[in-house]
Amino acid sequence: MTKKSSKVELIKEESGNLRGDLATQLHNGQNYFDKNAIQILKFHGIYQQDDRDLRRIKGRDKEWSFMIRSRIPGGGLTATQYLAHDRLADTYANGTIRLTTRQTIQFHGVVRGDLSSTLRELHDEMIIALGACGDIVRNVMCCPAPAGSRTDHVIQEYAQKLSDHLLPRSKAYYEIWIDGEKAGSSQQNDPEHEPLYGKNYLPRKFKIGIAWPGDNCVDVFTHDIGLVATINDHDELQGFTILVGGGMGMNHKKKETFPRLADPLAWVPHEEVIDVVTHIVAIQRDYGDRENRKHARFKYLIDEWGIPKFKKELEDRLGYRLAPPLDLGDMRPELHLGWNRQADGRWYLGISVENGRIKDTPEIRLKTGLREIIRRFGTDVRLTPNQDILLTNISEEDQHAIEQMIREHNIPHDYTLSNARRYSMACPALPTCGLAVAESERVFPGIIRELEQVLEELGLDKEVITFRMTGCPNGCARPYVADIGFVGHSMNKYDIFIGGDPAGRRLNSLYRGLVPLEELVETVKTLLVQYQNERYEGEKFGDYVARVNLVDETNQISEAGS
Ligand code: SRM
Ligand code: SF4
């Protein structure tokens, strides 16, 4: 800690390894936690929120509730674990399950008195929320496609092993939420030794994603550390190419913030990857900015140091030289939807979930349908980085009955959906997200509907053009690698970013700032018409934008206004 360290640094340091006075506040009769406690709560996978719609009603107190995020490495859940989430969503939350862009599940609308019960019942199914948020390594992502091969299991196991290894050692979570008896005395316990994190944990959140070769469904270049597996001809995992320094978040008003793609660093044999990753995290712990939280992500350290300096520091710590990174070859943005055969002969079914929200509507009974299928056939589940769900390990004889149940509940099959809808993602934004400045999840289905019409009129409906929307520039739906990203700038106004690459290797750039919601489709239509008239055969939208230089180099983010 230095004199200039941010306030959150002091809160972490004085928390006694993530205890703070959560246990006391939990029983103080209020329905919210104070501002210091909410910083510590995040490490426990909990965010304090209020219903932003109700804020507009004058004279009304804030309606406090909590979002809980489960930690689900690689997005893998057993049938029983999924069913527990389904049940808890009804018992304690707002009745919906929210699949996230990092393969986890969020509950919204949990009241304070139900936090312990929710976390305890998740714990009964071996699911924790610890470390799903906070300044530590978050949920480790991994390509979810269950190829059923040996390597698939090995890669999923690495997601789990990395996640376990990088979890905080603090017992605070268990004392406070699970084993409530001890909570009262928790502050008297000796804080544990945190070998990696120390008392101050990391300067900021830290994210890791593992990609299958050629398949960039995890958006591997957007992570603090991206790992791309190398597999030999005998289906054996050899190692990983390591990428460092990716991240999406930025702030319209702060020039020192920007999205960044990760750079290739090295190749490591798989037996060494946990050690190397741990050392990389430790360098960020030691050198990351602890004064300015807006500048504290690992990407800024990499940007300022450059790869040669960073690699030297890492090699000095490891005590050996690292091999150069391998060429990653072509990468595709796979969604893994529809029926797919696993290498073990069984099947998995990928179901598209619009913006990750699993709920029942009068037309589509998605929540009930999924519950009934998973309950009856005991299918395991994998959540995808595109907020979708895969039902796995299905035998051939069950396929027909599952199809029938899909139809009975009116769940759309992926092939009935347009590419625009299947590939789209939106963050939750209003009314739950405290940082939202504009709508996202609630308005995006309508925007996509209008875009579908435009694309069809122009004969572009078979093209893969990725559309992503967020309610602020933090980038939770990774909008800066989409072909077209709509980023909330202020209420009802969006910045439009264009020219990303569906394979995730190019950031998009600002095209127009402060476009009203009602004009988004019209603005994009002009671009699509131009693309349709001028593109080379087979040319992708983002590649076209890059080729014809549609984005004016001088059109800097700050010019979008504030
Ligand atoms: Fe995020 C903060 C939702 C993935 C960058 N994000 C938030 C919070 C917790 C708002 C808050 O701090 O109060 C949002 C809760 C909204 C709500 O009501 O549920 C929130 N982020 C989400 C989710 C649910 C979006 C989704 O549509 O699924 C994703 C949950 C992931 C998970 O399961 O762990 C989610 N957030 C991301 C991603 C994408 C990713 O990780 O692949 C990013 C960009 C990548 C990155 O980190 O650079 C992302 N979220 C942020 C940021 C900006 C961080 C930065 O570097 O500046 C914030 C704000 C912050 O940390 O200060 C944020
Ligand atoms: Fe909230 Fe912004 Fe993230 Fe959307 S992008 S969930 S508005 S923090």
Can you tell me about this structure?
- The protein is built from 17 helices and 20 strands.
- It has helices at about 5-15, 20-25, 35-45, 50-55, 80-90, 115-125, 150-165, 170-180, 275-285, 300-305, 305-320, 365-375, 400-410, 420, 445-455, 520-535, 540-550; strands at about 45-50, 65-70, 75, 95-100, 105-110, 140, 210, 225-230, 235-245, 265-270, 340, 345-350, 355-360, 380-385, 390-395, 425, 465-470, 485-490, 495-500, 510-515.
- Among the domains are: about 135-180 and about 195-335, Sulfite Reductase Hemoprotein, domain 1, CATH 3.30.413; about 340-415, Sulfite Reductase Hemoprotein,Domain 2 (Sulfite Reductase Hemoprotein, domain 2, Alpha-Beta Complex); about 420-550, 2-Layer Sandwich (Sulfite Reductase Hemoprotein, domain 1), CATH 3.30.413.
- The radius of gyration is 23 Å and the shape is globular.
- It has a five-stranded antiparallel sheet.
- It starts with 6 loop residues before the first helix and ends in a 14-residue tail after the last helix.
- Strand 8 and strand 9 (about 235-245) form a beta hairpin.
- Helix 9 (about 275-285) crosses helix 11 (about 305-320) and helix 15 packs parallel to helix 16.
- It is α+β, with helices and mostly antiparallel strands and about 550 residues long.
- The chain binds siroheme and iron/sulfur cluster.
- Iron/sulfur cluster (SF4) binds near residues 429, 435, 436, 471 and 472.
- Iron/sulfur cluster binds near residues 436, 471 and 472.
Largest sheet: 5 strands, antiparallel
Globular, elongated, flat, extended or rod-shaped: what is the shape?
A: globular
Number of strands: 20
Q: What would the CATH topology of one domain be?
A: Sulfite Reductase Hemoprotein, domain 1
Mean pLDDT rating: 93
How far from one another are the termini?
33 Å
Distinct bound molecules: siroheme, iron/sulfur cluster
